[in-house]
Design brief:
YbaP-like, TraB/PrgY/GumN_fam, 6-stranded mixed beta sheet, 44% helix, signal, TraB/GumN family protein
């Protein structure tokens, strides 16, 4: 999932960024006992996204652990539950035609897509689009940092499990029909938005990122399940879980979880943390 939502060579890249003008956004949330250094993740990426901001990597060297949404290095469930109506039963004739065109563009098996439940078809399309645009899950921010933590013996903590994320998708209203219809009907726009997302993330362009986030809204119920309810749960966990009552941690979650009144930094601020931005920004070149 771009909205909520996934190289070995990058593990040996220089550890510090040379840019002093603009960097991906890094937040510091702290109180008297602990601090969280928060970086928004892009779950699939390219080598142009590295090195990461100096402000983040300096904190990494003294951190007590890496906190992620879910540890994607763990083996996924052997059998993914795919119950639910097939996508073709949820789409109009015109939407089915568009799905066929998209499948052909991405060299995906149309029959499999049409028989999968809507949420799984969306995931398949979005992963394939990332690959089509030259992005790679093994160059995603969370993957790179998880591998680095694993190699250094740094403790890794999960805010939720992969199984919970799959369950969330399976339990979306109408099995994710709204997401699928939106994905199909806005396919051309999505390609441009994904490229803009990468540019805005690299520039630390908060206004452009907020605009992309607002443009990607679904219904309130779907947005609550994908974004806002999870943000509340994470803020509560970081604030009150006994694991995090003291210490210094780095936190890496999807970039869209960090913006607005219901974004994770603001929710931590509401819980008594002092929250500051550690990096500078410039305007992204999104045409």
């Amino acid at each position: 999932m771009f909205k909520s939502l996934l190289s070995k060579a990058l593990l040996i890249l220089p550890f510090f960024s040379n840019s002093a003008l603009a960097e991906p956004i890094v937040w510091l949330a702290k109180d008297a006992q602990r601090q969280f250094v928060i970086l928004g993740s892009i779950h699939a990426g390219t080598d142009t996204m590295y090195p990461l901001p100096k402000a983040f990597l300096q904190q990494w060297q003294s951190t007590d652990g890496l906190i992620v949404e879910a540890n994607i290095l763990n083996p996924p469930p052997m059998d993914i539950e795919t119950s639910g109506p097939p996508s073709h039963s949820q789409l109009t004739t015109d939407e089915m035609r568009k799905l066929t065109d998209i499948a052909n563009q991405l060299n995906l098996p149309y029959r499999v897509l049409s028989n999968n439940p809507p949420w799984l078809t969306v995931v398949s399309l979005q992963m394939a689009l990332s690959n089509h645009l030259g992005l790679n899950a093994e160059q995603g921010i969370d993957y790179i940092l998880l591998k680095r933590a694993e190699n250094q013996g740094l403790p890794i903590f999960e805010l939720e499990s992969i199984e919970q994320q799959l369950s969330l998708l399976q339990d979306l209203p109408d099995h994710g029909k709204e997401m699928l219809v939106s994905t199909i009907n806005e396919w051309e726009q999505m390609q441009g938005e994904l490229s803009c997302l990468i540019d805005a993330w690299q520039a630390g362009d908060s206004q452009q990122l907020i605009q992309l986030f607002e443009d990607s809204h679904y219904s309130d119920e779907t947005d609550n399940r994908l974004i806002f309810n999870r943000n509340q749960h994470w803020a509560e966990t970081l604030s009150n879980d006994k694991q995090y009552l003291q210490g210094h941690y780095v936190v890496v979650v999807g970039a869209f979880h960090l913006f607005g009144e219901q974004g994770l930094p603001n929710l931590l601020k509401q819980r008594g943390f002092t929250v500051t931005r550690l990096t500078q920004e410039k305007s992204a070149n999104c045409n």
